[in-house]
Amino acid sequence: MLHIYCPHCAETREEEEFRPKGEAHIARPVEPEATSDEDWGNYLFFRKNPRGLHHELWYHAAGCRKFFNVTRDTVSYQIHETYKVGQKPSVTADKGAAK
Amino acid sequence: MQHYSGFGLVKHALTYHENWQRAWRNPTPKKKYDIVIVGGGGHGLATAYYLAKEHGITNVAVVEKGWLGGGNTARNTTIVRSNYLWDEAAWLYEHAMKLWEGLSQDLNYNVMYSQRGVMNLGHTLQDMRDIHRRVNANRLNGIDGEVLDVKQIQEIVPIMDLSKNTRYPVMGASWQPRGGVARHDAVAWGFARGADALGVDMLQQTEVTGIRKNGNKVVGVETNRGFIAADTVGVVTAGNSGVLAKMAGFQLPIESHPLQALVSEPMKPILDTVVMSNKVHGYVSQSDKGDLVIGAGIDGYNGYGQRGSYATIEHTLQAIVEMFPIFSRVRMNRQWGGIVDTCPDACPIISATPVGGLFFNCGWGTGGFKATPGSGNVFAATLAAGKAHPLAAPFSIDRFISGKLIDEHGAAGVAH
Ligand SMILES: Cc1cc2nc3c(=O)[nH]c(=O)nc-3n(C[C@H](O)[C@H](O)[C@H](O)COP(=O)(O)OP(=O)(O)OC[C@H]3O[C@@H](n4cnc5c(N)ncnc54)[C@H](O)[C@@H]3O)c2cc1C
Ligand SMILES: [Zn+2]
Hints:
Helices cover 8% and strands 33% of the residues of chain A. Chain A is mainly beta. Chain A has a domain at 3-27 and 50-92: Folate-binding superfamily (Folate-binding fold), CATH 3.30.2270.10. The two termini of chain A are 22 Å apart. Chain B has 10 helices and 19 strands. Chain B is globular, with a radius of gyration of 21 Å. Zinc ion binds next to loops of chain A. Flavin-adenine dinucleotide is lined by residues 38-44, 63-66, 70-73, 75-79, 207-208, 236-238, 240, 259-261, 295, 338, 340, 364, 366-370, 416 of chain B.
């Protein structure tokens, strides 16, 4: 069971209150009509799916019902940080996981 | 290859079964192969077998980082069926089903394919409409299927709770009598032994760490045992496909998720078919050893850890007990997870890639065991010809650009 800190509620709660929503920081093309099929396909379907650090979107479904981001290791499942939508992660693959 | 038979069993009993030939060799890698297959799961091994058998290409290596069949092949709940909704998927899975029906004979290896029937329950009006639609579509494709009412279900599975007192009363089911279960290890071992006998090298404990390219053309794979050259490389690595794609420099429309399963303590025979429910979200069969084999849906987060969360197991067992209150006090023996490669349309990718000579067969997600022989068969033809087998063509990666998806969420869903 993951224990997840919701940055909105400022509380650590059990995984069952949350829903994972996949890769974070995916920007919707600004002008969909002017976007090529390839870019639109990339936006909709293609994912980084890394083995290691992953920045992902979570939803506090049975809590405040707000979205936020999580930096989590997809092998150890360790959560390194959670942060609000619009903010940037402080733990990244090139910077290495803060110990 | 040493031929297996009843007579052979008796003969070897005389020497206390100490003189059986090894089922496959353990060769040192050659410098160059015509074709390298990455991933020694059922799909990779089947690919190698059909390459040698049907296309006469025997200078082939299967490169496996662990041991043969130790990935999802050894972790799945072995449900086999072909009742998919859309033509493209139905044809592919039915192609596999036909191969299953003769596989033990073909491989001279008992894969224990048991056609005990697969039942998919409906609990709502919409479920029943979907079941009617899918069974009709199946029959138009020449695939066996029937719609059962509650009375017919009760005759086949007397121990199921079919009363109106449940939270989601059962209203009916689809039924594919030719579906069933098979022995997963035997499938991997049978294909490995067959391919080895035709000259294919099984390279175990050989991990691919890079894909070497010349311009935009693959020239071989880097491994922990050195570089292995090949002009054609087929990647069949299930949950790790994204990692291999990254080595080759592109992304896939795939996410890797844990999928868990459990087996109970062994019991006397009590359930002689496979029962699945998308609605209450769980499925169960009983193995020949007597244990209940139980599974349900993926853990929602991305993961490579071959394990998931306990909450998922709890939901799975709630569903089983909802359908079968009689199982409420059965103890569970073991639980594990595999890493499944889920695709947005719940269909596989069997495809050329942006890199010349490099092909991927992945995205089977929660339901690829049933396709093992068919997947290997069409992928072998694809690698041999350098272009998609007609049954594989609709499963090209291009569909995620063109939008021509094959949406099997209804037929796949929890139902593996
Ligand atoms: C719990 C569970 C239940 C399931 N139930 C069903 C079911 O009932 N019915 C059904 O049809 N399907 C089911 N599935 C899905 C099914 O198991 C898979 O779709 C299928 O087995 C995939 O076979 P494969 O050969 O492609 O993959 P795998 O058997 O996973 O083989 C891939 C191989 O690639 C190797 N590999 C990975 N990276 C590298 C590398 N860098 N170098 C070398 N080798 C590498 C791995 O070690 C592995 O052996 C289930 C899966 C799970 C996890
Ligand atoms: Zn919250």
